[in-house]
Design a protein that fits this description.
One of its GO terms (cellular component) is plasma membrane. By secondary structure, this protein is an alpha+beta fold. Helices cover 63% and strands 8% of the residues.
Length: 394
């Protein structure tokens, strides 16, 4: 593939990607990272088109080359910025924009000094540097990243070095180095450009889809209001402790808690106030728990606590501490200062328990706390052993 055809392919490829992305995202809100990435692709498409039309009379070299490379540098820099944005580094503009300004100024200086040699050096080093910045942004999530992310990091880094190698070779050894001639490096660098376009395009979209899939999976087990496990998530976390209860060892306690007369808050102050109360209650509970303890939202304002390696007496103390903390911490909403109380039912996991029997027992204790006047902690009734049913002989 000659250089003119390659530039045309890069231009059309970016234009096609921009069009597909526009219609895919039409009418929906974009994330900041995706918006930046879309602008980056538009800049790259415009830059490649200008470079394709140079010397054809459509756009004179004096305009097409400086402006084309400026747009190309801007597109690659913004593409790196979108990866930093996706990595949670929202201040990337403080570094990318000044680097882009220096890069454009350096290229224009090289272009007007020497229209061939220095231009090749500058463009290769600038593009390779910005692509490497994108690889570094992806590498921030290496430890907990997927195989796709790790592949993207390695591939981007290698291709970035290959792009920059052309400029380094021209700068250090203008005549080439043995079998590694300038023409071979130019061919490899051109191929790297095409691969980078494909890799950053499809790789970025696949990474976005992977992140969206993770978010969907997280929403299946996490309550969006409180960021605590929902019913399904809590049962998933409870399952191994149910199995461990069948073995000798320290007991595990389960506590059900329910906010008292919560309906009056929604009726009197509105649902936003109710949501604020729920979030505040969850924060209050978490401050009283260990890192190993788990708080889950079962339904409405009913929550469950899983207290690993905690016997019944200690669980009662934990529940009482949380009850007092909730009572002593009124929640300030937009319309009122709301004081809340909660009722608790406490039990421990028994070897013969299923989730049904466990929660039935805890729920009965919770109902007893409600019936006893609310704002109470009640332990589940311990069944009498069968041998105790026999009346001792007199």
């Amino acid at each position: 593939m000659d250089i003119t055809t390659m530039v045309f392919v890069l231009a059309l490829g970016n234009l096609a990607l921009c069009a597909a992305l526009f219609f895919f995202e039409f009418g929906s809100a974009r994330s900041p990272a995706l918006s930046t990435w879309a602008i980056a692709r538009q800049c790259q498409a415009a830059g490649w088109l200008l470079l394709y039309f140079r010397g054809t009379g459509v756009a004179p070299d004096l305009v097409s080359i400086p402006l084309g490379y400026t747009l190309l540098f801007t597109g690659v820099a913004l593409e790196a910025g979108s990866l930093w944005e996706a990595a949670g580094r929202a201040r990337w503009r403080r570094f990318i924009y000044p680097a882009l300004g220096v890069a454009v100024a350096a290229f224009l200086a090289c272009y007007f000094i020497d229209q061939l040699g220095l231009r090749v050096v500058a463009s290769s080093l600038i593009l390779g540097g910005f692509y490497m910045a994108g690889a570094v942004a992806l590498a921030l999530g290496w430890k907990g990243g997927s195989m796709l992310r790790r592949f993207m990091v390695v591939a981007l880094a290698m291709l970035s070095l290959l792009v920059a190698a052309r400029g380094i070779l021209v700068l250090s050894m203008p005549g080439g180095w043995g079998w590694l001639s300038n023409s071979l490096v130019q061919a490899l660098s051109s191929g790297a450009f095409v691969l980078l376009m494909l890799l950053t395009a499809f790789g970025y979209l696949l990474l976005a889809r992977e992140q969206l899939q993770r978010e969907i999976e997280r929403m299946e087990v996490v309550d969006t209001l409180t960021d605590a496990p929902n019913r399904r998530g809590f049962f998933n976390l409870l399952a191994p402790w149910m199995a461990l209860a069948r073995r000798p060892g320290l007991p595990t306690a389960v506590v059900l808690l329910d906010l008292d007369q919560f309906k009056r808050i929604n009726d009197s102050y509105g649902h936003p106030a109710g949501d604020a109360v729920v979030r505040a209650m969850v924060d209050t509970c978490k401050r009283q728990l260990r890192d190993s303890d788990i708080l889950g939202r079962m339904a409405g304002v009913e929550f469950a606590l899983l207290l690993p390696r905690t016997d019944l007496l200690d669980a009662l103390l934990v529940a009482e501490r949380i009850r007092r903390a909730i009572e002593a911490a009124p929640v300030k909403t937009e319309r009122a200062l709301v004081k809340m109380t909660a009722s608790f039912g406490v039990t421990t996991i028994r070897p013969e328990d299923t989730t049904v029997s466990l929660f039935k027992r805890a729920d009965e204790a919770l109902r007893a706390a409600k019936a006893g006047g609310r704002n109470k902690v009640v332990q589940a009734v311990t069944p009498v052993a069968p041998e105790a049913w026999v009346t001792p002989a007199s």
